[in-house]
Design goal:
Blueprint lengths: L1 E11 L4 E3 H5 L6 H8 L3 E3 L7 H16 L8 E5 L10 H9 L5 E5 L5 H14 L5 E9 L9 H4 L4 E12 L3 E9 L7 E2 L11 H5 L6 E2 L1 H22 L9 E4 L4 H10 L11 H4 L6 H11 L8 E8 L3 E8 L1
Parallel strand pairs: 4-5, 4-6, 11-12
Antiparallel strand pairs: 1-7, 2-3, 6-7, 8-13, 9-10, 12-13
The structure holds oxa(dethia)-CoA (UT7).
């Protein structure tokens, strides 16, 4: 028997930090409001000239180093991102070239904040089918490039960074136990960027109208996020015939600390079984789960045979979960 197992993780974030105090000077907000309503104290923001691929590459190097895998052993690179360097080539191909991963197919997938779990699920299927042995899975974003720093409802939460995991075909029963993916495009316009695609290509008017920035109906997104995250998590547990109490660590999408707390409560998990780093990273969309996974891993919170539950929700809408035996 074999499974797809994560054998190395890595993460990276821009060195520039944007604090709540900094935001107080940019929009009508306060450190107190941001901390109370989101749990965020600071976030990392890319400088001009720092594209998403920079952080994806740095996270990948660390993950490959931990895994003891060389780039030419990779069969595939999958990147979850809604902020690629450009429409084409993909971040996957840019990273493939930088790593010199000469044997790897590479592509991006767009699944909002659920991007990493979608990518992990695809990678798991390729390994389980026997078509691939080693796959690099990345979640990477520079949301600051599409965030409106005049809009206080979005600029206080979104941020930049990348996380990566090396997935390997391994003997035994440790590895990915299941993945569950969902979508509902009916909610697309509750969190979207109107301009810059084929529907509304860039013109002077779209720029003047600030159409190249994310628009979000935060409160509506908030409520659906909790319901969806709960659905994805509970399905993962029931599919594997395990109860909430058996989960050793929940690593949820870092969207808002109140969402994380609500999910923990619904899953009856005490705080020590829920990983959160939203205070220092903010909401990095597809990068949030793999950055948190890497931090938990490097803090030695993931022990052999631990049951780790990944859970995410995002634009699309998309949502999903992955249950891993570490
Ligand atoms: O990544 C996956 C998708 N994204 C999410 O899951 C994010 C989900 N949404 C959220 O995290 C929250 O909805 C926000 C943090 C974006 C907003 O928090 P909220 O508790 O839902 O606030 P709200 O939109 O209901 O606004 C409450 C009040 C409003 O004022 P009034 O109308 O009550 O006077 C807002 O205008 O707070 C005001 N407000 C702010 N005040 C200070 C909104 N943003 C801010 C701000 N600073 N930054």
């Amino acid at each position: 028997m074999y499974k797809a197992r994560i054998i190395g993780t890595g993460s990276s974030a821009p060195s520039k930090v944007l604090t709540n105090k900094d935001l107080e000077n940019m929009v009508d907000t306060s450190d107190e409001w941001i901390v109370t309503r989101t749990g965020i104290k600071q976030r990392h923001i890319a400088e001009n000239g720092e594209p998403t691929s920079k952080f994806a590459y740095q996270a990948s190097v660390k993950a490959l180093e931990m895994a003891g895998v060389s780039p030419d052993q990779l069969d595939m690179i999958i990147v979850g991102s809604v902020t690629p360097d450009m429409a084409t080539p993909s971040v996957g191909c840019i990273v493939q070239h930088q790593l010199k991963a000469t044997q790897a197919a590479a592509f991006d997938i767009s699944a909002g904040c659920t991007g990493f779990i979608y990518a992990l699920s695809i990678a798991n299927s390729y390994i389980k089918s026997g078509m691939c042995q080693k796959i690099l899975v990345i979640g990477a974003e520079t949301l600051s490039k599409i965030t409106d720093y005049q809009d206080r409802t979005t600029c206080i939460i979104f941020a930049d960074g990348a996380g990566a995991a090396v997935l390997s075909k391994e003997e035994g029963d440790r590895g990915i136990l299941s993945t569950h993916l969902y979508s509902d495009g009916a909610y697309g316009k509750l969190l979207y960027m109107p301009g810059g695609g084929s529907a509304l290509p860039a013109t002077y008017k779209t720029i003047d109208d600030r159409e190249h920035y994310l628009k979000m109906d935060g409160n509506k997104v908030f409520k659906i996020a909790i319901k969806s995250l709960e659905e994805a998590a509970l399905t993962a547990l029931s599919h594997n015939n395990i109860t909430e109490g058996t989960v050793d660590l929940l690593i949820p999408h870092q969207a808002n600390s109140r969402i994380i707390d609500a999910i923990a409560k619904r899953l009856k998990l005490p705080p020590e079984k829920v990983f959160s780093n939203i205070d220092t990273y903010g909401n990095t969309s597809a990068a949030s789960v793999p950055i948190a996974l890497d931090e938990a891993n490097r803090q030695k919170k993931l022990k052999e045979n631990h049951l780790i539950l990944l859970d995410a929700f995002g634009a699309g809408f998309t949502w999903g979960s992955a249950l891993l035996r570490w």
